[in-house]
Amino acid sequence: MRTLTTFRSTAVAALALFVASPIVAEAASFAGTWTFTGTFVQNGGTYVTAPVCVLRQTGNALAGSCKGPNAIGSANGLVNGRAITLQWHAISTNPATRGQGGVATLRGTWGADGVVRGTIVSTSTPGTGVLTGQKM
């Protein structure tokens, strides 16, 4: 009888420990090549930015670079589960605005359908845009 009581006590203690333990969401792997599209609607017009980003991930930290049709620059960010925050330090490659740039902050969540959805804000474009992204 003593063995059964000890077993029950151990099982109850193990169950209590499991239930009380915080479940840590494993970070999704954002490493690789991504295409992002940010769409801003302002003053009756639409502005679209579409960088392709090559990212490396170490733990929850991201680093890499992004290149769009009119800008190029380094990128860094953080992953929290399936959520991403990425800053693109863009420098214009457009001859009309050569050398100018800004910082675009992309925030989104990677859905089960493989698409990142969220928002984008930029120091060079007013307002908040709609963000989508997919791993290539």
Under CATH, the topology can be stated as Lipocalin
Helix vs. strand class = mainly beta
Strand content: over 45%
The assembly state of the depicted protein chains is single chain
Quickly count the domains: 1
Distance between the termini: 61 Å
CATH homologous superfamily assignment: Quinohemoprotein amine dehydrogenase alpha subunit, domain 2
The CATH architecture is Beta Barrel
Q: Could you please describe the fold and organization of this structure?
A:
- It contains 1 helix and 9 strands.
- The protein has a single domain (about 30-135), classed as Quinohemoprotein amine dehydrogenase alpha subunit, domain 2 (Lipocalin, Beta Barrel).
- The longest helix has 19 residues, at about 1-20.
- An 8-stranded antiparallel beta barrel has the order 1-3-4-5-6-7-8-9.
- Strand 8 and strand 9 form a beta hairpin.
- The protein is globular, with a radius of gyration of 22 Å.
- The relative contact order is 0.19.
- It has about 140 residues and is mostly beta strands.
Question: Which helices and strands appear, and what pairs or packs with what?
Answer:
Blueprint: H1 2-20, E1 32-42, E2 45-49, E3 52-58, E4 61-67, E5 71-80, E6 83-92, E7 101-110, E8 115-122, E9 125-135
Antiparallel strand pairs: 1-2, 1-3, 1-9, 3-4, 4-5, 5-6, 6-7, 7-8, 8-9
In brief:
The chain is mainly β. It contains one helix and nine strands; from the N terminus they run αβββββββββ.
